[in-house]
Task: inverse folding
C-alpha cells in the first residue's frame, strides 16, 4: 500500500480532470512566484572557532548603509532592504529571478561573548559579523550531586 499526501484542493471528481489539473498547476505556480518576488530572505552561514563566532549573509547588490544591526536581550538582529532596480521603458524583462524587499534575521547569542567587541564588515556581497568569545565566561558548568 502506498501513502499519498493529503491535498484538500483535489476533493471532487471534477478536480481530477486533466484540464483542472493544468489550471491548478499554473494558478499555484503564479501565486508562488508572486510571493517569492516580494520576499527576500538572505542565506546565512554560521561558523565557530575557539575565539569567535562568525555570521555571513549573502546579500549581493546591497550597500553597507542598507543594513541595520541591533542587539537586544541577547539577540542579534540584522535587517535591511534590497531595493528593486528601477525598470525603464527601453528594457523588456523576460525573466526576473532576483529577490527584493525587506528582510530581518535574528540570532540568539550565547552568554560567553564580548558584546562590545562585535564587528561587522561588508565586501563582495557578503555581510560578515564577527562575535568574539569571552574566555573568562565559560558556558560549561559542572553540577555537584548532593
Result:
Amino acid at each position: 500500500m502506498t501513502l499519498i499526501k493529503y491535498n484538500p484542493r483535489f476533493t471532487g471528481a471534477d478536480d481530477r480532470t486533466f484540464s483542472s489539473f493544468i489550471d491548478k498547476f499554473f494558478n499555484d505556480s503564479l501565486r508562488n512566484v508572486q510571493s517569492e518576488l516580494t520576499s527576500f530572505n538572505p542565506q546565512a552561514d554560521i561558523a565557530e572557532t575557539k575565539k569567535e563566532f562568525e555570521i555571513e549573509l549573502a546579500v549581493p547588490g546591497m550597500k553597507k548603509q542598507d543594513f541595520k544591526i541591533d542587539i537586544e536581550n541577547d539577540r542579534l538582529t540584522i535587517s535591511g532592504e534590497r531595493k528593486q532596480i528601477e525598470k525603464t521603458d527601453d528594457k523588456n524583462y523576460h525573466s526576473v529571478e532576483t529577490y527584493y524587499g525587506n528582510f530581518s534575521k535574528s540570532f540568539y547569542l550565547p552568554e560567553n561573548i564580548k558584546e562590545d567587541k562585535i564587528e561587522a564588515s561588508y565586501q563582495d556581497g557578503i555581510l560578515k559579523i564577527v562575535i568574539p568569545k569571552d574566555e573568562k565566561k565559560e558556558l560549561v558548568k559542572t553540577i555537584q550531586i548532593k
Observations:
- The first strand starts at residue 44 and ends at 48.
- The mean pLDDT is 78.
- Residues 44-83+98-132 form a domain with the Immunoglobulin-like fold (CATH 2.60.40.790).
- Helices lie at 18-37.
